[in-house]
Amino acid sequence: EVHQMPLRKLEKHYVKRLRTNGEGCEDYGGIFSTSSKETYEKDPLNLQDMRRDQVHVAETVVTVLVKDINDNAPVFPNTTMYGEVQENGPIDLSVGVVWAWDADDEQEGTNARLTYSIDKNVIEELSGRPIFTVDPLSGLIRTAICCLDRETTPEYHIQVVAHDGGGLKGTCTVVVRLADVNDNSPRLTR
């Protein structure tokens, strides 16, 4: 702080400076005349130090936006999910819906955009065709062939994969159970 005080018609200043550690003011040692050559010659270092040690401080708020990268793979809530379908039903019966989630930011890029596929499907022996399909966007599993027989195979195991837009994937096993219908007549043993 510089307080001007008129003394003997000369412009003189009483000088204080803020300490460098921020703890109050330090007396700079008296009265200096800025218009007199004699003051500068008496104590030139104090005046030079005072000019050099003045610090100005400004503050602002900085907001840091963290950019999302694809560092999270899709995760299914359970490693095993269950579905059910009636035996002897037509093609395109709904078995169940699988779903996964991705911790990456949905609003930024495709890192959290999921698509579904069947990695390990069951193949029908007669036709060589896969028995189940999955909708890539909804995760709805359906039958791809008709007439599944519970008495021959009561349940099927398939592996569904969820892929995110950045190439990471998660898997789960879907157990498809066949619901029994009354499609067999009684037979006599003899």
Structural description of this entry:
By secondary structure, the protein is mainly beta. It has helices at 37-42, 44-53; strands at residues 2-7, 10-18, 25-33, 80-86, 94-97, 115-120, 132-134, 140-143, 155-163, 169-179. The protein is built from 2 helices and 10 strands, in the order E-E-E-H-H-E-E-E-E-E-E-E. One of its GO terms (molecular function) is calcium ion binding. This is Cadherin domain-containing protein.
Features of the shown structure:
rod-shaped; mainly beta; 3-stranded antiparallel beta sheet; 4-stranded mixed beta sheet; 190 residues
* Mean pLDDT reading: 82
Give the helix tally.
2
Strand content: 35-45%
Structural class call reads mainly beta
- Molecular shape: rod-shaped
Helix content: under 10%
Rg calculated over all Cα atoms: 41 Å
* Helix-strand string: EEEHHEEEEEEE
First and last CA, distance: 118 Å
Q: Count of DSSP E strands?
A: 10
Strand order of the largest sheet: 4-10-9-6
Pick out the low-confidence regions.
Answer: 5-10
Largest sheet: 4 strands, mixed
